[in-house]
Design brief:
The chain is α/β, with parallel strands linked by helices. About 35% of the residues lie in helices and about 25% in strands. The structure holds S-adenosylmethionine.
């Protein structure tokens, strides 16, 4: 069902290499077994997982592409990325909304994201970027890159969604050079107990509607548990967002040189 395949598409003057595991392909068309008139009705109604699969893989990336391209979110991107440098591993690359905000000190971006639909939506932004961009169409829990091969790691609004976030953070640390930095802006568990209670109540709905996104992850603790040292950490609420979805963790963490 998730057979690995490799494809490449020429985009403008650059070549976008996409390594894919077919995340966007519905696994199989499974229908209930029945006979007679019931069967005729049932064959017209695909099961719920098929509908959710279609929603998450084909529609949701379009929704995220618009919802995550607001003035307030883009201001967060600009602030997060202004000091990023060198070769960058961007985890949860999505539709490439960060590309516009990277400074001139960036020489290459390798984006990791299992969504083929997002990679397609990113094509124009990749073609317009002034540095090479490569997409690895795989989950970040196991990233096929060499140890210590990146100067910077970037994660924006992604640690909420990665299913095994602890493994992904260990992979990010492995890929980062000693002395390198993880730049992040994420939403997560709020400090205010009232807001936190709402996050707990609404988390299941959030997960169903936004492709497994969690409202209540303790982002800075997760980063530190993976062996990063927190260099800078700020909190605030994202302008215009409801508090339960907008408690931000902005910061920089390092992989110590020792
Ligand atoms: C809310 S979107 C954010 C996208 C982008 N980082 C941004 O700032 O616009 C979350 C992203 O995480 C990606 N994602 C989900 N599971 C993932 C995984 N296991 N590894 C890497 N990315 C994942 C989704 O495909 C989606 O692009």
């Amino acid at each position: 069902m998730h057979s690995a395949r490799r494809s490449s598409n020429t985009i403008g003057p650059k070549r976008l290499a996409v390594r894919s595991v077919g995340h966007d392909e519905p696994a199989s068309l499974s229908y209930p077994v029945a006979v007679g008139p019931t069967a005729a009705v049932l064959t017209l109604v695909p099961d719920r997982s098929l509908i959710m699969g279609f929603y998450e893989t084909r529609l949701l990336p379009h929704i995220i592409n618009v919802a995550m391209n607001t003035k307030a979110v883009n201001e967060e991107r600009r602030r997060c990325l202004e000091n990023v440098r060198g070769t960058v591993l961007e985890v949860g690359f999505g539709t490439g909304l960060n590309l516009l905000h990277y400074p001139r000190t960036v020489t290459k971006v390798v984006g990791v994201d299992p969504s083929n639909t997002s990679a397609r939506l990113a094509r124009k932004r990749i073609a317009a970027s002034s540095f090479p961009v490569e997409i690895i169409g795989l989950p970040a829990e196991k990233i096929p890159v060499a140890d210590a091969s990146f100067e910077s790691i970037v994660s924006t609004f992604t640690l909420c969604t990665i299913p095994d976030v602890a493994s992904a953070l260990l992979e990010m640390r492995r890929a980062l050079r000693p002395g390198g930095r993880l730049y992040f802006v994420e939403h997560g568990r709020a400090e205010d107990p009232k807001v936190e209670r709402w996050q707990e109540r609404l988390n299941a709905i959030e997960q169903a509607v936004f492709g497994g996104c969690n409202l209540n992850r303790p982002i800075s603790a997760l980063i530190q548990q993976a062996g990063f040292e927190m260099e800078r950490l700020e909190h605030s609420y994202l302008k215009g967002a409801p508090k339960f979805a907008g408690f931000l963790y902005r910061g920089v963490a390092t992989r110590s040189a020792s």
